[in-house]
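Case 260 in the screening queue. Each case pairs one protein sequence with one candidate compound; here the compound is beta-D-glucopyranose. For every case the pipeline is the same: read the inputs, emit a complex structure as tokens, and attach any notable structural observations.

Predict complex for case 260.
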Amino acid sequence: MLLKDKTIVVTGGNSGIGEAIVLAAAREGANVVIDYVAHPDETRSLVERIEAAGGRAVGIQADITSSTDLHAMIQKAVDTFGRIDVLVNNAGVETRTGLLETTEEDYEKVMAVNMKSAFFGSQAAAKQFIAQQEGGQGSGGLIINISSVHEDWPMPGNIAYCVAKGGMRMLTRTAGVELGPHGIRMVNVAPGAVSTPINASTEADPAKMRRLDAAIPLGRMAQADEIADVVVFLASGKAGYMTSSTVVIDGGIMQGSVGL
Ligand code: BGC
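Case 260 output:
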């Protein structure tokens, strides 16, 4: 069991990549905190599934676009399991609009859900890690951001998302430097195309899927489990010298070449 007795908090943990991370972490023995904003019934049944398999999980409702809610979420996690070891800033949305069409409302939503949440979630977790250290509860602390290949790679027609993910990349680089002296690490995971609800409209369109599969050297989208397995490895302590950097899991899509 790679995560035995570690407590891991996953924002947006009741669907897509977040749900896969929650299930993989619970299988590896972690105490799992599932943050959600909507769908309490789905979250409850996810908790029940984990408990039925002998794991430990709790759902906490928190709007991660609010710094107050994020701090309260970390506090509730600590109240439940005594401490936290890993925060996964996973919640994300995209609007699939370009610069010319993106409204101020779209922009603010994408920045708040992807970027502001990772910023203040990391702040809340880092403060808790430092408090634990000062309270004699061991060293360390890890923050994993679920970013995207689009932290580095333009996606025309999805510009606010690219801007937010680019911000997450600089958050990780800078906060990793600031927090390193406290023994706290921050790592980004950058998935390519993954079969999750965020890509439902692409998956429903056979022509788009043919184009997408052709653009991926491995010839297919990832399954959410393939991202979750890497998150478990990063959280396991077997990756203890990694910080401020990004792990790309994209089937090679970012190297895309027209082969001229
Ligand atoms: C986006 C998807 C896109 C994928 C690969 C993800 O971050 O959410 O919409 O298909 O990157 O480009």
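Case 260 observations:
- The chain has a mean pLDDT of 97.
- The beta strands are 7-10, 31-36, 56-61, 86-89, 142-146, 185-191, 245-249.
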